[in-house]
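Milestone M4 deliverable, item 7.
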Amino acid sequence: MNPSFTSSDKAQFIRKVTHDINGNFQGVASLCLMLKHVIQKDQDPAPILDHLTDAFKEYNSRLSNFLQYTRADAGIVDSFPEQVNVRHLLSKLIEEHDYLAIEKQIGIDLLVSQEIPEQILSDEFKVSQIAANLLINAIAFSAPGSQVSLEIDKTDKWWKLVVKDKGEGMTADQLECLFSLSPAGRKKLRNPMGLGLLVSRYLAEDVLKGKLSLISQAGIGTEVIVQFPLN
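Output delivered:
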């Protein structure tokens, strides 16, 4: 994904990420066994099902990001353009991740410019993955009771997604390490094994030929702007 990554950095990073993904998988498997035990005893399975659903969503997110990362590292770049209703796409995405926001009592706003057409030609799966990664990060790093917003707007040549949070933000040192695989650099980050931003930048820039930029200030919050070509 980046020629400046050394093979040693990538090897260490991949070992740690795969360890985390395997841990997520084992967690899902354990909850499945617990669910079977509860059903056999004619007990209420609802609490286990709730935990299982949450665990599966986390596992699925990490695995999807890792698969995209390995495809990028192998030089596989593909896109499948189709007509996408971005309003519907993001509304559905918010519903799917509402459980994360509820746990922290965080509100999520969706603001759509009237200039946005009903259908936009893009790759729905990849846009969805980018937006999901940014939304998950925004919720994870926001203070309880705060607000997260997703904004969609357009210019003549681009349509853009802006995800804002009022969380802990990042220092200048952390911003410099966001797209590094160096173990020393990753240690400075709140989520050193997180692939969300790495994968989002790859999908936005290398695959969809757009742009991803980020503004953050410690104690203030973070704003991520992704621009996608309209054509």
